[in-house]
Design goal:
Layout: H1 5-9, H2 12-20, E1 22-24, E2 64-66, H3 68-73, H4 84-110, H5 113-122, H6 130-157, H7 178-196, H8 200-222, H9 229-232, E3 235-238, E4 243-246, H10 273-285, H11 297-301, E5 307-311, H12 318-336, E6 340-344, H13 356-369, E7 374-380, H14 382-385, H15 396-410, E8 420-426, H16 434-437, E9 442-445, H17 452-463, H18 482-491, H19 499-512, H20 518-531, H21 537-551, H22 558-562, H23 572-582, H24 588-639
Parallel strand pairs: 5-8, 5-9, 6-7, 7-8
Antiparallel strand pairs: 1-2, 3-4
Helix pairs in contact: 2-4, 4-6, 6-7, 6-8, 7-8, 10-12, 10-18, 13-15, 19-20, 21-24
Domain ATPase AAA-type core: 312-445
InterPro entries: ATPase_AAA_core, P-loop_NTPase
Protein name: ATPase family associated with various cellular activities (AAA)
Length: 641
């Protein structure tokens, strides 16, 4: 729903009054001690201790006047004029207070809280409803705190620089009622600025850091509070700020990342037909995301690829594939006016400090899955970044990254909205942890140019135009015609490619005949599992997801991307219906091809992994044998000088 500007601005006088000054006695946190010099032996005074029975243990702290305007203006080293960062901070705090009060008021009107407040004010609150009233006030306090922090963080985000501030943990998060919650939040913000805002740069950073902390604290408390469904199930949009308050979910500005990348066109990717085709399809799929519904029709209908893995030998075109896909999505987003974020998780994110690598990986995930943007995240050379559990050569930082990626790609809290996709690429996928590798819903074999025509095409492409060498008897790029090449590639998977899997296939086919029913294909899957115990239920899910992708084996028309009004800007239900009209029926051939494609990749990884392990064991045994021989020779020489 739209939060009207009038409903926000009517709270400006109250917000301004809070900025100018109010009284608050801290209940949980401790005030910053003022450094006042005193002569030796002079008493600093004693805290008053009540002698009234029952009040002895209650903290009695003097209520100090909080003047945020003065505190903010004190960060300029005595300048008589208010600086732009100070004015920005004051405006943001006032605006955030007004938004929090407006949202809390809207919540009170949607629940019995408004009526109960009026009854309590009149002195006729029923005794039977006092508990409900108290719980609703707690909910209002949490909503007020979180909305204030959320709006303040959002409004300050565009003013952040490189300065960072560690403000520690905040404590004065009060849940008595909305007004007291605001007093506690503003009191602690004042204390934070007193400690961490000596200049304007630190003022912006400390204010933003406090807002983030307040959000986290309020969201954590809300997990055990009641009566919050009306707030969590609703959304308030503020047109002037382009801010959407959506429950306890942090808002963020939908900003694109600046890409400095050499984009590649699809015709500049030679070979890799299936990988190229599916990357092109996925680039269009992600554009079908609906920002209002926060869902992609492909994610609802099935067939959206959230994670995929591309593997192949060095130099076969994995980086080129990334450049092609990022370039396509970037162009589509620019045409539609959508914010686009691309980020690569690199070795720079591995840190020697405990826990920091995991935090870096989590920040990478959050940047890409932000539901207000279209995202594409890559993990190139994932075997170097994510450690294999049980491998003594994996560092603690690598294992932290593995844990974060596993939880983010298919954890209990993973929500696939369809606004982003993650690609994992490796020359040595056998070195990737089995559980993490199985979280890749699709497999792209990046094997580069294969045929004579492929090699002619890639030579012709890379030679450029600064030569007079004739092309000869060859039609340039005819072999790269995507539909023809992909059909042949899929057809080739009607039978397995890996020798070990082919033996299983032929044995089962000899026993039960042509695999053309669910029961027969299930028997084949069980036989694969008996041959490789890593072929689990997750593998079956990945196969069925790939089959659904094949059912969506159509390419959204280029015209839909070039003219957003035809598809991208349509209503969610209309987009879903348009996609359903293009969907194809699932066939036995599709299912068998996808079973063989996926199982081929697992057997390929397993064979490589086992072979590497055997080679390492042989090498170690050879070393021990040589060490033993040299040891005995040295012992004999010592005995016979």
């Amino acid at each position: 729903m739209e939060l009207r500007e009038d409903d926000i601005r009517k709270h400006y006088p109250a917000a301004t009054a809070l900025l100018n000054g109010f009284e608050h006695a801290p209940r949980i946190a401790k005030a910053v001690e003022s450094a006042i010099e005193r002569s030796p032996g002079v008493s600093t005074g004693r805290r008053f201790r009540s002698t009234t029975p029952g009040l002895v243990t209650r903290r009695t702290v003097r209520a100090d006047g909080i003047h945020l305007v003065e505190r903010i203006e004190a960060s300029d080293d005595g300048d008589a004029l208010v600086s732009p960062p100070q004015a920005t901070t004051q405006q943001a705090i006032r605006r955030a207070i007004a938004i929090a009060l407006a949202v809390a008021e809207s919540y009170a009107e949607q629940t019995p809280l408004a009526d109960l407040k009026r009854a309590n004010l009149a002195g006729d609150l029923p005794a039977a409803r006092k508990t409900e009233f108290s719980e609703l006030l707690t909910a209002e306090a949490l909503i007020t705190s979180h909305t204030f922090g959320n709006a303040l963080a959002y409004l300050m985000s565009s003013h952040l620089g490189e300065t960072t501030v560690d403000i520690g943990e905040i404590e004065e998060v009060l849940t008595d009622n909305g007004q007291l919650a605001l007093h506690g939040a503003l009191w602690e913000l004042d204390q934070t600025l007193a400690k961490h805002a000596p200049d304007d740069a630190h003022l912006i950073a400390a204010t933003s850091a406090y807002a983030e902390q307040l959000m986290d604290k309020a969201a954590l408390r809300a997990q055990s509070a009641g009566h919050l469904a009306p707030f969590q199930n609703a959304a308030w949009h503020i047109e002037a700020d382009d801010l959407t308050i959506r429950g306890f979910e942090p808002a963020s500005k939908a900003k694109s990342t600046t890409l400095t990348m050499t984009f590649k066109k699809p015709n500049e990717v030679v070979g890799n037909h299936i990988a190229k085709y599916q990357a092109m399809k996925l680039a269009k799929m992600v554009m079908a995301y609906d920002f209002d519904r926060r869902l992609n029709p492909f994610a609802e209908l099935g067939g959206f690829i959230f994670t995929f893995m591309g593997d192949g030998k060095p130099g076969t075109g994995k980086t080129t594939l990334i450049q092609m896909m990022a370039g396509l999505i970037n162009d589509y987003c620019q045409n539609a006016g959508y914010p686009f974020r691309y980020q690569n998780l690199s070795t720079d994110n591995i840190d020697s400090y405990q826990g920091k690598s995991g935090q870096n990986a989590k920040a990478f995930i959050h940047t890409i899955i932000d539901p207000s943007v279209i995202g594409f995240g890559t993990i190139d050379d994932i075997d170097q970044l994510a450690g294999k559990r049980g491998d003594r050569q994996s560092s603690a930082g690598q294992l932290e990254i593995t844990a974060v990626l596993m939880e983010s790609f298919a954890g209990a809290n993973t929500v696939v909205r369809g606004n982003c996709t993650f690609g994992m690429f490796s020359n040595y996928p056998e070195n990737v942890d089995d559980a993490l590798r199985q979280r890749a819903g699709a497999r792209f074999l990046v094997d580069g140019p294969q045929t004579r025509e492929d090699y002619i095409d890639i030579l012709h492409l890379l030679m450029g135009r600064n030569h007079d060498i004739p092309l000869g008897e060859h039609e340039a790029y005819a072999a790269q015609e995507i539909k023809k090449a992909v059909a042949a590639s899929f057809e080739s998977h009607s039978r397995p490619h890996e020798e070990a899997l082919l033996q299983v296939y032929e044995r089962i086919q000899g026993q039960i005949g042509q695999m053309d029913t669910i029961a027969k294909m299930g028997a084949y899957l069980k036989a694969i599992q008996q041959a490789d115990e890593r072929f689990t239920g997750r593998a079956i899910k990945n196969i069925t997801d790939a089959v659904k992708v094949r059912a969506m084996d159509f390419e959204l028309p280029d015209e839909w991307m070039e003219k957003p009004d035809l598809f991208l800007f349509r209503d969610y239900d209309i987009k879903k219906a348009m996609i359903e009209d293009l969907r194809q029926p699932i066939t036995v051939e599709m299912v068998m091809q996808e079973i063989n494609r996926y199982a081929d990749s697992e057997f390929r990884y397993a064979d490589k992994s086992d072979e590497v392990a055997i080679e390492n064991a042989i090498r170690q045994m050879g070393r021990m044998e040589e060490a033993k021989r040299r040891y005995l020779e040295g012992k004999d020489q010592g005995a016979n000088p």
